[in-house]
Specification:
single chain; 105 residues; alpha+beta; Alpha-Beta Plaits; four-stranded antiparallel β-sheet; 4 strands; elongated
Length: 105
């Protein structure tokens, strides 16, 4: 297991995705953000089945900063309950993983 994580975060629109992504990188909380458009979500919210277009952020960050990243995303996110899922990185290109682990340094 490496010292980095990938956070899967959904957002309602490109403006929100860019604002969250840019803030995390500018503040040194994440090394890189990928914004993926064209996703449609179907989910149950308050007992009602909903459907919405969303974008996904893949936030690549040092695992040691995970709690700070979660808090910052929640502070910037318009959803009452933002989707933030941490995915462990178990391998990959070692020099790239080392670069990700040094975000903010």
């Amino acid at each position: 297991m490496s010292d980095v994580i990938i956070l899967y975060v959904t957002t309602p629109d490109r403006e929100t995705a860019r604002r969250i992504g840019r803030t995390l990188v500018e503040e040194g909380l994440a090394a890189c953000i990928n914004i993926i458009g064209g996703m449609e979500s179907i989910y149950r919210w308050h007992g009602v089945v909903e459907q919405a277009d969303e974008l996904v952020l893949l936030v690549k960050a040092p695992a040691a900063q995970a709690e700070a990243v979660y808090a910052r995303i929640c502070a910037l996110h318009p959803y009452d309950l933002p989707c933030i899922l941490a995915l462990p990185v178990t391998g990959g290109n070692t020099p790239y993983i080392d670069w990700l682990a040094k975000a903010g340094h």
